[in-house]
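Q: What would this chain look like folded?
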Amino acid sequence: MSVRSRQIGKVIINGNWYTVQPGTFEIIELGFEDDDGNPLHPPLGQYGYRFRTENRDEYVGPLSAIELYKLIDA
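A: My prediction, written as structure tokens:
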């Protein structure tokens, strides 16, 4: 089953629910870069998530950390 990212309304990470601001959930390649946007390491080959909460906090982490997705009608 494929999940439409715009339907993700909440996620559980480490046993805690987080409300996802509509339309902000995305899959990213994890990595770190310097202030000029240059990579600090070779590609990790690991994918993660990025989203904002209702109060505009930004969360980034490995996909494996998400235990459950709550879907909403979008």
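Residues 11 and 69 are 5 Å apart (CA to CA).
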